[in-house]
Amino acid sequence: MVSTATKIGTFDFDNCLMNAAGVYCMTREELADIDASAAGSFVTKTGTLNARAGNPEPRYVDTSLGSINSMGLPNHGFQYYLDFVTELQNTPNSKNHFLSLVGMSEEETHTILKAVQDSDYQGLVELNLSCPNVPGKPQIAYDFETTEKLLKDIFAYFTKPLGVKLPPYFDIAHFDRAAAVFNQFPLAFVNCINSIGNGLVIEDETVVIKPKHGFGGIGGDYIKPTALANVHAFYQRLNPTIPIIGTGGVKTGRDAFEHILCGASMVQLGTVLHQEGPAVFERITNELKAIMTEKGYESLDDFRGKLQYLD
Ligand code: SIN
């Protein structure tokens, strides 16, 4: 019997597919739809200390090869999402979930995480170190010193399972440096990758989104090779106790298979979920299972990380 079940640390999931933070996860209603689908879990929209309206519209556009967005972290405030995941965890047979968070400053991030630490929530937390769309705020994980200090300060008081959502890195020296930082901490997972930040899409002579004169995060087909490279680079470098979530360019079972082959324990859907809605989880799960059946694999463990090289 072919199974796409997986684990992140001590957390079990019946299916390795879930949404990516930012897609179909802004409201309780959207999150409930994902929960009721074939997805193994959901992650909430990244919650900030206070609710945010985000950037002016248009701020998301689908393209023939994917998408561009500059949402600017619109969200209902972290407490809205914390309340929902805590409520769900207390319902019988609840799936396990991920709560995505970040502050608009280091101080705000600590305020949020201390509130989560003091709450009844026992699930996974994803710290978003990679939003490219807030004007004036660089992607935190591109600054290794700031990232290292932030994680050191967080793990001085935070004892619940916490992972990080990373931006793509593009240089072997940066994979080495980033992994050396992350290996110092008891991370529950790393998630590779957020959108490729600050691309431009143009129609006729004009940008297609309003914020930041058209600059926005790129998702979809454009980013799969970069996502696979980041998943595999971290799979090669991180302590085996840190599982990897693969995100970027997944729109078929074959794409999910490739992420797992590169080392992903779980795979997130972004642009394709925006385009097709929650029914996409069943389609891609069936496609992944068909590939596993054809290859004689019964579980993800049979092929996770077993990417073959030409030498
Ligand atoms: C956004 O809200 O701008 C997208 C979220 C992200 O890229 O982290």
Summarize the topology:
Blueprint: E1 6-8, E2 11-13, E3 17-19, H1 28-36, E4 60-63, E5 66-69, H2 78-89, E6 98-101, H3 106-117, E7 124-128, H4 144-155, E8 162-166, H5 172-182, E9 190-192, E10 196-200, E11 202-203, E12 206-207, E13 215-220, H6 224-237, E14 244-247, H7 253-261, E15 264-269, H8 271-276, H9 280-295
Parallel strand pairs: 3-15, 6-7, 7-8, 8-9, 9-14, 14-15
Antiparallel strand pairs: 1-2, 4-5, 5-13, 10-13, 11-12
Helix pairs in contact: 5-6, 6-7, 7-9
The protein binds succinic acid (SIN).
Percent of residues in beta strands: 15-25%
CATH superfamily: Aldolase class I
- Are there runs of 5+ residues with pLDDT below 50, and where? none
**What's the CATH topology name?**
TIM Barrel
Secondary structure category:
alpha/beta
Distance N to C terminus: 34 Å
Helical segment count = 9
Largest sheet: 7 strands, parallel
Question: Which ions, cofactors or small ligands are bound in this entry?
Answer: succinic acid
